[in-house]
User: Fold Soj-like protein from Gimesia alba.
Amino acid sequence: MRIIAIMNQKGGVGKTTSSVNMAAGLAMQGKKVCLVDLDPQGHASLHLGIEPMGNVPTAYDVFSGFKTLAETRQLVAKNLWVVPATLDLAATELELVDAENREIVLREAIKKMAETEPFDYLIMDCPPSLGVLTVNALTAATEVIIPLQPHFFALQGLSKLLETTALVRRRLNRNLKVSGVVLCLYETGTRLAADVTDDLCAFLGESDPEAPWADAKVFQSRIRRNIKLAEAPSYGQSVFDYSSSCPGAKDYAGLVEEIIAGEQAEESPLQQAA
Ligand code: ADP
Ligand code: MG
Assistant:
């Protein structure tokens, strides 16, 4: 199972849009996918048409220890389950402050689910902060994908974020790695986007071989700015269901292909050893 944290402490960079459409695209390719909404704003849940009300179990119940992931997830499309979030989840940050093992709650929950029902992919849509929810995601993850909007300050925020992955790798999750950066809200043909992309590639190319991002790549698929991607959430649909041939659907389909291609890259060293 690949456990992917979609993370950037900046808001509005395309985390939720990428989490939802990657998850939907992978499910359409026959992968069994669970999307865990870790943002108290619940945008990923809403994007896929879930408006949790009343006693519907959510991610909050998983962090509180009242429910398992299996009891919380909802089937929203073929091969695609969502663990929804509501504003309740904001309380988790506070409630876990003094809890022992507060960083590993989600990892334990995922381990438990995987014992009885394996998924191919578990994708976590992180909130725009580096608080306890994001740390839980990083502790549980096998890899991190960072959506980045190419503008002047993007690389500054990136180093803070990468430091956090290094810290979590040292203390909590030795296997954590950053597999890639996906450029979102990309303005094709602008000088700025091209410059930031070059700087980013140079920065990643020079990284310390011991760093979690040593093998990180910039995905070839750039997610262009496309209004259909912004419209799809209000219909409770992934971009593939909302407008299957728009540029946004094409870009995310390309990204999904690259992610699936990464499966072989991950398996090959083992297969060679076998
Ligand atoms: P985050 O989760 O990082 O806060 P979102 O994925 O919610 O970011 O994106 C922020 C806003 O931008 C949302 O309204 C979303 O619909 C819109 N958006 C995201 N990606 C694109 C894109 N490629 N083209 C147009 N709008 C986009
Ligand atoms: Mg979001």
Remarks:
- The mean pLDDT is 93.
